[in-house]
Amino acid sequence: MIDLIAAEYEEFDILAFTESWLNSSHTDDSINLLNFHSPFRRDRGPQKLGGGLVVYVKNNLNVRRRPDLEIDEIEAIWLELKVQNKNILCGTFYIPPNSGHETWDKVETSLDMALNDNKDNIIVSGDFNENQLNISNSKVKALLNQFSLTQMIDEPTHFTENSTSLIDLIMTSNVNEISYCCVGPPLTDQIRYHCPVIDF
């Protein structure tokens, strides 16, 4: 899979993956991508399967991790990038299915800390496991309203044998900094799959 990712997405500056399923048995060297910084990871503990995050940033970009914006109980990575004299905060989240209010409260807290740090240039991406095509779902919408964020993806990103859903999202505090968003083709030919979401 690493070789496929390297071939398909070499031209992108930032690659953020949810449900990485990585743990301490996977070394950084085993998942490094050529021309990218060492991966930024958020693994689950050895007793928990699934989940996890990994983010790659091109090695010509100035980047640092912001653990002060991350909360232990949720799967999130915050990175600060300096791009054309602007500081941009990039957050990546994985919210497990059927997460309760406690999880969403911690997501809210993490976003609040990030926006207090840099409200002008924030990009948040990830798998939020709340279908935005279902108008009765309100947790993400509440966050968008509370923090004046715009959700950029408007078509399905997750497909099963008998359903489609929009759960992989890109949100921003400044739509003028994003010129284009789309849903890309899937990386695999499995029956159940996520499509990548892409922004420029």
TrEMBL record:
The lineage of its organism: Eukaryota, Metazoa, Spiralia, Lophotrochozoa, Mollusca. InterPro entries: Endo/exonu/phosph_ase_sf (IPR036691), Endo/exonuclease/phosphatase (IPR005135). Signal peptide: none annotated. Residues 3-174 form the Endonuclease/exonuclease/phosphatase domain. One of its GO terms (molecular function) is catalytic activity. This is Endonuclease/exonuclease/phosphatase domain-containing protein.
